[in-house]
Amino acid sequence: GLGVLPRAMAALGAYRCIECNGEATELYRDYQRGVLRISICKSCQKPVDKYIEYDPVIILINAVLCKAQAYRHILFNTKINIHGKLCVFCLLCEAYLRWLQLQDSSQNTDPDDLIRYAKEWDFYRMFGIASLEQTSFFIGIFVTLWWMTPEMLKGKSDFILLLKALLLSTYGKLLLIPAVIWEHDYTPLCLAFIKVFVLISNSQAIRVTLNLNRILPWFAIFFGLILENGVVCLFQKMGWNV
Questions:
Q1: Distance between CA 177 and CA 164 in Å, rounded?
Q2: Per the UniProt record, which residue ranges are transmembrane (predicted)?
Q3: Neighbours of 80 (CB within 10 A)
Q4: Which residues pair with 30 in a beta bridge?
Q5: pLDDT tens-digit profile of 127-143?
Q6: CA distances (Å), 183 to each of 119, 122, 191, 198, in order?
């Protein structure tokens, strides 16, 4: 119930209604002696954030289902600050997958130290390539949104919030590891589904953060993919196996 609310939530601040995206000054009111009441949104007359009394597992399930309410709860009404670490870990997962595929294509089993060093360098190279591709993908999204909706990205805080939302919404890449560990004939199909899921999560994050319709986020993602694929083509022309 409300008794398990994090202490950070008790302070007054700028929150969002998870139903209508309206602003709210508080998520709940403390009447002391253990009596708490969830605040009601003045715009839609619904609870500002029903998820504050939900178990984290339920919130995670709703986020996996890409529910806008769960995304608003996570982005606006919590103090989550793991986007940087999550981004690095997701990139490591992607780099490991590419490195593993690169090793599978190589038949050299020489245990020489030079060979082992080369394989280790390949992993760092894959991490760098994955980082550049994701950066170009985000740049494509930012440029498109700034060009089409400049009023939504006026200040530095707007860009930071959108970047945080995009980084958090890439959590689907964590599924790359179990997809590789439980390798089977359908692994390529699984990887394709993971890619689609991450793009859907990115779209929902953009939509919730900037309060847009469903079309514009996908338009931005489309241009982000074009720029990302352009980087991939550049690496391939340089003779790098990506």
A1: 23
A2: 126-147, 159-182, 189-209, 215-235
A3: 11
A4: 36
A5: 999 999 999 999 999 99
A6: 21, 22, 11, 20
